[in-house]
Amino acid sequence: MKAFLILEDGTVFEGNSIGSTREVISEIVFNTSMTGYLEVLTDPSYAGQAVVMTYPLIGNYGITPDMESIRPWPDGYIVRELSRAPSNFRCEGTIQDFLVKHDIPGIAGIDTRALTKILREKGTMNGMITTNENYLLEEILPRLKTYHTGNVVDKVTCDSISRLSGRGKRVALMDFGAKRNIAKSLQDRGCEVTIYPAHTRAKELLADKPDGIMLSNGPGDPKECKEIIAELKKLYESDTPIFAICLGHQLMALANGADSHKMKYGHRGGNHPVKDLETGRVYISSQNHGYVVDTEHLDPAVAVPAFVNVNDGTNEGLRYTGKKIFTVQFHPEACPGPQDSSYLFDKFIAMMGGNQ
Questions:
Q1: Residue 139 sits in the same domain as residue 199
Q2: Is the confidence at residue 1, as pLDDT, over 60?
Q3: Contact criterion met (CB below 8 Å) for 316 and 330
Q4: pTM
Q5: Do both 163 and 130 map to the same domain?
Q6: Are 125 and 51 in the same domain?
Q7: Alpha-carbon distance 95 to 107, whole Å?
Q8: Residue 289 maps to which CATH number?
Q9: pLDDT of 305-352, one tens digit each?
Q10: Concatenated DSSP letters for 157-172?
Q11: Is residue 225 annotated as part of the catalytic site, yes or no?
Q12: Rounded distance, CA 283 to CA 298, Å?
């Protein structure tokens, strides 16, 4: 069946329908990872977005047990070529069947490199995936221009508190759309991890007396999370050690007077170089974000830049002055991506006093 990707600038790509055949409007973003497509699909940070994979062949090892959450989150999936006959000893099915099962529409057979070039030159834009061959641009384009992802954290966060066993430090993980490997990375270091819904009050969390607090990744514009930001200010004032990743990093910055803005096309992939400003060492990191913290007017009495993106100079982390708090924009838990910066979890354990 034919399918069409229609961008808000009027560009139309024609390809073949994959997954669900329902029509969807979403923000179109691209990911440059060469592997790890299943981890990308199941990363809650993609809620409210349709993902373009720049690597041309997707699905060649099928569906494996490498999911980062219980279900996929993107609104749509866009690839050059979808493998219909995957081969891997852990393969449990095909991407096609996976997309159909979870009602995610997609399109294959288009020039994803050309599409990515448009998004890089013009910036991230909204688009529609449809199988309707009789579409009318004059009706669709106004709908695309008014689409807004809204507060998608409420869509991806957990419904109730849960606990993962461990004999080490007790960590409270705020779930703004947390990937599984964040909790696993803490468990691998002996931590007992308690996972809290995004709108948990600071008073309730602190009443459990955690040794440290982990703020997770998540989707959307951080400025949409006004109630969460207010509660994070209270966590900041508690003097409990805090480590934050991605959206958590942005929310903590906003809670302490910083600002953020939407990037032209964001960072999404497994090959982004970040520089540790304290040591000068560069790490290759996994990233997935479309917003960034502004540091131009950052009060050094509150926080100072800790990491910077080598490619474009944007902020990649903050160290909070006089506090046991550090935050990063990239993903030290990887999945997919390199594990260069996984040592940051060890730094967090040490900040809590170690497991001895």
A1: no
A2: yes
A3: yes
A4: 0.96
A5: no
A6: yes
A7: 12
A8: 3.40.50.880
A9: 999 999 999 999 999 999 999 999 999 999 999 999 999 999 999 999
A10: S-SS-EEE--SS-EEE
A11: no
A12: 24
Residue 356 has pLDDT above 80, yes or no: no
Residues 302 and 162 in one domain: yes
- Structural domain count, the chain: 2
- For every residue of 134-148, DSSP letters joined together read T--HHHHHHHHHH--
Distance, in Å, from the CA atom of 61 to the CA atom of 85, rounded to the nearest integer, reads: 9
Question: Phi and psi of 197, rounded to 5°?
Answer: -60, 155
Q: Which residues of 200-234 are buried (b: 16+ CB within 10 A; e: fewer)?
A: bebeebeeeebbbbbbbbbbbbbbbbeebbebbee
Q: Which of 246, 267, 272, 289 is catalytic?
A: 246
**Spatial distance between the Cα atoms of 131 and 5, rounded to a whole number of angstroms:** 9
User: What is the rounded average pLDDT for all residues in the chain?
Assistant: 96
Q: Are residues 165 and 120 in the same domain?
A: no
The answer to whether position 264 is within a domain reads yes
**End-to-end distance of the chain based on CA atoms, in angstroms?**
60
Range of the domain at 284: 153-351
Quick check: is 272 catalytic? no
The single residue of 8, 68, 316, 333 carrying the catalytic annotation is 333
pLDDT at residue number 296:
87
Task: Answer with the one of 120, 146, 172 that is the final residue of a domain.
Answer: 146
Is 246 one of the annotated active-site residues of the chain?
yes
Contacts of 23 (CB under 8 A, 6+ apart): 105, 128, 129, 130, 131, 132
Cα–Cα distance, 232 to 208 (Å, whole number): 16
- Strand runs (DSSP E) across the chain, as ranges? 2-7, 12-19, 24-31, 49-53, 57-58, 76-78, 81-82, 105-108, 125-130, 162-164, 170-175, 192-197, 212-215, 242-245, 259-276, 282-294, 303-309, 315-320, 325-328
- Beta strand 242-245 with 259-276: parallel, antiparallel or unpaired? unpaired
**Six-digit token string for 77:** 């999936």
- Catalytic residue, chosen from 27, 231, 331, 335, is 331
**Local confidence band at 297 (pLDDT 50, 70, 90 cut-offs):** confident
